[in-house]
Write a structure and sequence with these properties.
Layout: E1 2-3, E2 30-32, H1 33-43, E3 48-51, H2 58-64, E4 71-74, H3 78-92, E5 96-100, H4 104-107, H5 110-119, E6 123-129, H6 145-149, E7 155-159, H7 165-177, E8 183-189, H8 190-194, E9 196-198, E10 205-206, H9 218-230, E11 234-238, H10 241-244, H11 248-258, E12 262-264, H12 289-297, E13 300-304, H13 310-313, E14 324-329, E15 343-346, H14 349-364, H15 372-384, H16 399-410, E16 415-418, H17 422-430, E17 439-440, H18 451-461, E18 467-472, H19 473-479, H20 482-488, E19 494-499, H21 504-513, H22 535-541, E20 545-549, H23 555-564, E21 570-575, E22 596-597, E23 600-601
Parallel strand pairs: 3-4, 3-5, 5-6, 6-8, 7-8, 11-12, 11-13, 13-14, 14-15, 16-17, 16-18, 18-19, 19-21, 20-21
Antiparallel strand pairs: 1-10, 2-9, 22-23
Helix pairs in contact: 1-2, 1-7, 3-5, 3-18, 9-14, 11-14, 12-15, 16-17, 16-23
Length: about 600
């Protein structure tokens, strides 16, 4: 695909980009490769980048010093740069940019790149590389980052010539932000950064074979609409692709036009308002009983931007055994990968859902379906199995209560980034999400340490919003050095440490499946006699406000103080019970029909 005018207008990229006037033909603009990187980023509309300098990327950092158009956030670890760029992208839909040097600098980005790949986050990673004539000699800080990242990026580029910089970066940006979003890496040798070349803009982009399909085939749309009109127990199975496609308004219109219940996966929290009567909650291993059993007992699954992940399906062979499947995804590789689709639809969720609204109106005459019996069953599940928790017997805080109050006192306009583990599931369950891009988490990769830098990136992108990092004491210790970044750069995030003094989710599995043998999951972070580390003292050392909460009556006051403090980061150390568990639960490798609600088996659908 050759594009003579750049950028290509899509709904995910600006329809117009301010591009500096081209110099006269007899006065070519000569720039170093590093200068070309900087100028290209400006012309692509990039305003903020996250990075850490090193020998192979010094030329670019030299250019950064003498400009004011792009804000650079100096992180304390390259993984933090990657997750911050992810948080920036997930909160806005824009491409996040992370920068690192060669060797370990580049490999420290790998976790964030893999994370972005799994969760379809538009990320541009720019790395320095050793001089081109030294490549392959095991030179100091040399690593084949293009080869390393090829399986976890949409594409990885190596640039050895200064004149190739504009077109390569423009192509990378286009790939990252179109079709199924994802990470793209551009590795630039040091000599390519230093050498002079004519800067040509707009560049000509040639991407053979890269043709994302956004418009679905009309016959498939009609077939899907017909199945919807005939279904007795349909469910909208909504994945993160709906948020990435900015299709939440269309989803709301389709759901209300049909009356079909909606479940939103971990990656789709906020895609459909939690307050809406048709929202059954989150499905999956720790989903609500109504959501899990709605999928399991349905006769039609309309999957929108979801990929039938094992955490949703449970034992895939037993998942929704009586359901026909309409599978909508912009990535054709996901269609029928796990579950054969009766109606496969390749296309952008925003366009496809809009077409489904029209087609359904034609088939059903604009009337919602008669789903009275289906809703009677589902409402019965809601009444019998409400989301709740048991107060701890050890006198410590209930983590669910803490997280619920954070959500209630902050409100739906806040942004909540979570680490990975029990606190992640509780944050997905007990905070009510009313809008897209308000819930940020590592879904596919399950990356501990995601929350703090992701929250930092989200706050840079949306400085007027309250941004929380809801973290565990294990996760927090992996990336808490970015508190220094937040303090120095005036990024006042709020951090809630759900401190159960253990690796909570692993401990839960050990309790349930390994006869309570808690092997190497104790962290000693919440013990009264020996806190290692003391998170309040750590917060103070980083220039943040540190607060410790041990009693339920202290929870609201601490959260309110955090919300009122905007001149520095805030860290609240909530000492919670290590015995608290995440319920409901579908044990790994079992059928969703075996969902346990605090160890109580949920009922199966009873035929009329």
């Amino acid at each position: 695909m050759t594009t003579d005018a750049f950028p290509v207008p899509t709904k995910k990229t600006p329809t117009s980009t301010t591009i500096a006037a081209a110099p006269a033909a007899d006065e070519p603009l000569m720039l170093t490769g590093s200068g070309a990187v900087l100028r290209t980023l400006k012309l692509l509309g990039v305003k903020d980048v996250f990075g850490l300098p090193g020998g192979a990327i010094i030329p670019f950092y030299d250019e950064l010093m003498v400009q004011d158009d792009i804000r650079h956030i100096l992180v304390r670890h390259e993984q933090g740069a990657g997750h911050a760029a992810e948080g920036y992208a997930a909160a806005t839909g824009k491409v996040g940019v992370a920068i690192a040097t060669s060797g370990p600098g580049a490999t420290n980005l790998v976790t964030a790149i893999a994370d972005a790949y799994m969760d379809s986050v538009p990320l541009l990673a720019i790395t320095g590389q050793v001089f081109s004539h030294l490549m392959g000699t095991d030179a100091f800080q040399e690593a084949d980052i293009v080869g390393i990242t090829m399986p976890i990026t949409k594409h990885s580029f190596l640039v050895k010539r200064a004149e190739d910089v504009p077109a390569t970066l423009a192509a990378a940006y286009q790939i990252a932000s179109t079709g199924r979003p994802g990470p793209v890496l551009v590795d630039i040798t040091k000599d390519a950064q230093q050498n002079l070349a004519e800067f040509v803009w707009p560049p000509k982009i040639d991407l053979p074979g890269y043709r994302p399909i956004t418009k679905a085939h009309g016959k498939q749309i009609q077939a899907a609409a017909q199945l919807m009109a005939e279904a007795k127990k349909p469910v909208f199975y909504v994945g993160g692709g709906v948020i990435r496609a900015e299709a939440t308004a269309e989803l709301l219109a389709l759901a209300e036009a049909t009356g079909i219940p909606v479940v939103t996966t971990l990656m789709a929290r906020g895609a459909f308002p939690d307050s809406h009567t048709q929202n059954l909650g989150m499905p999956g291993m720790h989903g609500t009983v109504p959501a899990v059993l709605a999928l399991q007992e349905s006769d039609l699954l309309i999957s929108l931007g979801a990929r039938f992940d094992d955490r949703v399906t449970g034992k895939a062979a037993d998942f929704a055994p009586h359901a026909k499947v309409v599978h909508v995804d912009v990535d054709p590789a996901e269609i029928s990968k796990i579950r054969i689709a009766d109606v496969p639809i390749v296309g952008d969720a925003k366009d496809v859902i809009a077409d489904l609204i029209t087609a359904y109106g034609d088939v059903a005459g604009g009337k919602p379906l008669d789903l009275a019996d289906w809703w009677t069953y589902l409402d019965g599940l809601r009444e019998e199995f409400p989301l709740g928790y048991t107060e701890p017997s050890d006198g410590l805080l209930a983590p669910q209560y803490v997280i619920q109050r954070i959500g209630e006192l902050t409100g739906p306009e806040g942004v909540f980034a979570a680490g990975v583990g029990q606190h992640q599931m509780w944050a997905a369950q007990f905070i009510k999400y009313e809008r897209p891009n308000s819930w940020l988490n590592s879904g596919g990769a399950g990356t501990m340490g995601y929350a703090v830098p992701a929250a930092m990136g989200a706050k840079v992108a949306q400085p007027d919003r309250v941004v929380w990092a809801i973290d565990g004491d294990g996760c927090f210790q992996m990336t808490n050095q970015e508190l220094a970044t937040c303090t120095i750069n005036d990024i006042p995030i709020k951090v809630a440490i759900i401190n159960n003094s253990s690796l909570g989710m692993v401990r839960q599995w050990q309790t349930l499946f390994y006869d309570g043998r808690h092997s190497f999951t104790d962290l000693n972070t919440g013990h009264e006699t020996r806190m290692v580390p003391d998170f309040v003292k750590m917060a103070d050392a980083y220039g943040a406000l540190g607060i410790r909460v041990t009693k339920a009556e202290e929870v609201d006051a601490a959260i309110k103080l955090a919300l009122e403090t905007n001149d520095r980061p805030v860290v609240i150390d909530f000492i919670v019970s290590a015995d608290a568990m995440v319920w409901p639960m579908v044990a790994q490798g079992t059928s969703n029909s075996e969902i346990q609600y605090a160890k109580k088996l949920a009922p199966e659908w009873e035929e009329e």
